[in-house]
Specification:
The structure holds 2 protein chains of 2 kinds. By secondary structure, chain A is mainly beta. Chain A is globular. The longest helix of chain B has 21 residues. The two termini of chain B are 43 Å apart. Classes of the chains: A mainly beta, B alpha/beta. Strand 5 of chain A pairs antiparallel with strand 4 of chain B.
Amino acid sequence: MDIFCNGDRVSLDVERLAEALETLGFGDRRVVVAVNETFVAKEEWPSFRVRAGDRLDILAAIEGG
Amino acid sequence: MSEAPIAPTVPDGWSLYGEPLKSRLLLGTARYPSLAVMTEAVAASGAEVLTLGLRRQSPEKLGGGSVWDHIAKLGCRLLPNTAGCHTAREAVTLARMSREIFGTSWIKLEVTGDDYNLQPDPYELIEATRELVKADFKVFAYTTDDLVVCTRLRDLGCEVIMPWGAPIGTGKGVTDPYALETLRARLPDAVLIVDAGLGLPSHAARVLEMGFDGVLLNTAVARADDPVRMAAAFGKAVAAGRLAFEAGAMAESETAQPSTPVVGTPFWQSESG
């Protein structure tokens, strides 16, 4: 199925958010995630179901003012 | 001869949401020439609170030590921001994400209403503050200097209100001192930190002299020719401004008043001889 990862369309064969993050290369990275602009806590990643067309925002810390 | 007392050089401490602090300067971590310069500047400033943000990043860019790892080593309290958000919903979502990754309920709430001068949107800001206070966040609200907006923020339980001095990154200093003076006078018990628009240490000293509780800045230090020396200058200016406020300024006079006593002025002669 196709989803959007940080604005880019990607094709994934996964069911859960944790699998999606692993497949996308974020498995061991310190990131936080929102799906369709709603925060998804890390503890929910293994059970959170990803659906076609979902928009994932995967964010990490940066410098800021 | 008795020794003169040592003059106080560091004003008393203060606190933000119950966290005791010494420095009244809060510093941003962006736009420095390098992480090494940023690290030196933070140390030179004496700042104990640093702002940072969240952005989309590729997994490749996250390998081998993140910016956050570097900032965390500085041992300062973190104040994540919601920069770039344009709606209350976006800001609340980003705040929740920040709380998880940074492990703090402190949030510098920014909701932009105009992209030209990065002016905060008061309506979305108030809505986001309402949601975040309910969710037990400690909100640091970045706002314009509008008295009514600041009053609403206070009434919602926002304990730290951060009016701008001028638009972000302009370095203009306080463009409307009357508005800030009014805020200070009308909200005497609120913690008010001037955030954004300051360019010189004298700007910072001025707002502390006016009775503001602190300043938050970034570009004025990061874009100076020598950020480390400028950070030190801001640290001293903030401390000086606070010390002056605590000392209490003299009353202004419209006419000159001689400093030296006039009694016994030499060369003066009575007209009568």
